[in-house]
């Protein structure tokens, strides 16, 4: 198969958000793991990024001049897909985030299976497919991203008979069979995924969950396991399926961490925060991130390990997200109530145990906090990957921090070599991990951080893109293997071995 003439990225959001400030149009950098991961890829390779600009706007406005200017600056084209407020509400808030997001994170009780959301989802996906058709040629490779746009390939094939090479990558987990079958549109979702040429998942477990669904729900389809990539044979077509754990731009994080401006900011933050051990949490506001569980664990650690009092703080940044959704407002209120309770119980003159910030963070300050941290505390109830864990490793140029990482984050598979892995539902177990990180020697910290940094360095964002595109173009290297899975350790009760 010949190499693609261009790479087209298709995602729900563009890497820049259109906004009006005092009547003037502005472009603000987008946030989230997808933007952070893919922006350097297109800047490096060139191509086209197709997505929603973040506001319900009309074509032909002054904002289009900003897009043209930003395209010249970044080295790739931006193509906005314009959606109305009602389309966004039904497609994005309704089906994508009211059904697929909670279902794929095993939170069935949070799903709202409203039929109108399904039709809004299909309509929006057709709009994205139309933008792809207008801005692509048969020689391009089209790479569609994430759960909001599962139906783009199917919609594209309905709109043109010209063959397009098109792949899909799911950034969130794929649920096990017993969860997936609860989805009323399970058959339509599987059919839409099978319209792609290559399906990429974050972990071997996600890939296995998807293939298990196919084996049990589509018995007429042949599934053949391979070395790293599985083949799904449908008539005369073959869909390849594999795990491709996403990375970060390691070099840019490391270089910024070593820069004079970050070193200066680290000193400023240390003066502001004081000498206490800093347990760092950085998360988008979302119920999958385990924020109440994290606060409960920190409170438990202060209760059970008095030596940590006045010598440790939880520095928690919560990035605003979906502020108009009542469930997220409720979560924010619960977090702030717990912060107040903990600080009310334990604060002393000169020491506030939880320093909570509901705000976005500029990259310089983010990297400075990674360098300053004694430990990062990642407690996702379920996560596709979790790039915060990898960003910490990249910024730990002195190797002095501990990574406390949820077993249910996709990053656990790669970083199990050095992280303290915890069950986010186990409050006392997480508290024990905090105390262990608090008392850990500098030598053990460095020994744990070094292999994680090696993995994050070698399997960076460019490695991820290359592996995916190699698989998409039929050039799978001989050493291609799925990432090692993580399974919690189990100690057998020796009494079970005794003869009755």
Give an overview in words.
The protein is α/β, with parallel strands linked by helices. The protein has two domains: 7-243, Glycogen Phosphorylase B (Rossmann fold); 251-458, Rossmann fold (3-Layer(aba) Sandwich), CATH 3.40.50. It has helices at residues 33-45, 63-74, 85-104, 115-134, 152-159, 177-180, 186-193, 204-217, 250-258, 260-273, 291-304, 326-346, 363-372, 387-395, 412-415, 427-439, 442-458, 461-472; strands at residues 7-13, 16-21, 24-29, 48-52, 77-80, 141-145, 165-169, 198-201, 222-224, 229-234, 237-243, 277-284, 312-319, 354-358, 375-378, 402-406, 420-422. The N and C termini lie far apart (64 Å). 44% of the residues lie in helices and 18% in strands. It is built from 18 helices and 17 strands. The strands form three sheets. Strands 5-4-1-6-7-8-11-10-9 form a nine-stranded mixed β-sheet, sandwiched between helices. It is globular. Helix 4 crosses helix 5 (152-159) and helix 11 (291-304) crosses helix 16.
Q: Which structural category do the helix and sheet elements fall into? A: alpha/beta
Strand portion, in percent?
A: 15-25%
The description of the largest β-sheet is:
9 strands, mixed
Assign an overall shape.
globular
Instruction: Quickly give the CATH architecture of the largest domain.
Output: 3-Layer(aba) Sandwich
Low-confidence runs of at least 5 consecutive residues: none
Name of the top-level CATH class of the largest domain: Alpha Beta
CATH overall fold name of the largest domain: Rossmann fold
* Spatial strand arrangement across the major sheet: 5-4-1-6-7-8-11-10-9
């Amino acid at each position: 198969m010949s190499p693609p003439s261009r790479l087209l990225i298709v995602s729900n959001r563009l890497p820049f958000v259109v906004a009006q400030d005092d009547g003037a149009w502005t472009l603000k950098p987008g946030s989230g793991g997808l933007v952070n991961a893919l922006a350097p890829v297109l800047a490096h390779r060139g191509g086209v990024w197709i997505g929603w600009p973040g506001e319900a706007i009309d074509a032909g406005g002054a904002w289009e001049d900003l897009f043209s200017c930003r395209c010249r600056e970044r080295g790739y084209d931006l193509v906005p897909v314009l959606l109305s407020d009602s389309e966004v509400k039904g497609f994005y808030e309704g089906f994508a985030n009211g059904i697929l997001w909670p279902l794929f994170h095993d939170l069935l009780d949070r799903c709202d299976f409203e039929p109108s959301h399904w039709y809004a989802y299909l309509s929006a996906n057709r709009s994205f497919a139309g933008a792809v058709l207008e801005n692509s040629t048969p020689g391009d490779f089209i790479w569609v991203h994430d759960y909001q746009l599962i139906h783009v390939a199917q919609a594209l094939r309905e709109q043109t008979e010209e063959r397009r090479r098109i792949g899909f990558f799911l950034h969130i987990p794929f649920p096990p069979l017993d969860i997936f079958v609860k989805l009323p549109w399970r058959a339509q979702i599987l059919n839409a995924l099978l319209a792609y040429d290559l399906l990429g998942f974050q972990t071997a477990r996600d890939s296995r969950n998807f293939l298990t669904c196919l084996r049990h729900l589509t018995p007429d389809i042949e599934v053949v396991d391979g070395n790293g990539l599985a083949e799904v044979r449908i008539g005369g077509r073959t869909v390849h399926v594999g795990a491709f754990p996403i990375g970060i731009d390691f070099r840019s994080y490391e270089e910024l961490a070593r820069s004079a401006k970050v070193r200066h900011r680290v000193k400023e933050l240390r003066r502001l925060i004081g000498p206490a051990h800093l347990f760092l949490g950085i998360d988008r506001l979302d119920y999958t991130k385990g924020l109440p569980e994290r606060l409960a664990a920190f409170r438990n650690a202060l209760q059970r390990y008095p030596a940590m009092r006045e010598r440790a703080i939880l520095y928690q940044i919560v990035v605003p997200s979906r502020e108009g959704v009542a469930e997220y407002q409720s979560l924010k209120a619960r977090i702030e109530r717990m912060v107040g309770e903990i600080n009310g119980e334990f604060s002393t003159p000169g020491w506030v145990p939880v320093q909570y910030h509901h705000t976005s963070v500029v990259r310089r300050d983010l990297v400075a906090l990674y360098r300053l941290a004694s430990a990062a505390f990642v407690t996702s109830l379920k996560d596709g990957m979790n790039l915060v864990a990898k960003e910490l490793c990249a910024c730990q140029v002195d190797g002095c921090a501990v990574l406390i990482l949820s077993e249910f984050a996709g990053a656990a598979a790669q970083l199990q070599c050095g992280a303290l892995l915890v069950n986010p539902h186990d409050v006392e177990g997480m508290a024990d991990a905090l105390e262990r990180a608090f008392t850990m020697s500098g030598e053990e910290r460095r020994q744990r951080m070094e292999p994680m940094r090696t993995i994050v360095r070698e399997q960076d964002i460019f490695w991820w893109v290359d592996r995916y595109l190699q698989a998409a173009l039929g050039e799978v290297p001989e050493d291609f293997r799925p990432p090692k899975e993580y399974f919690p350790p189990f100690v057998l009760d020796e009494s079970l071995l005794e003869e009755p």
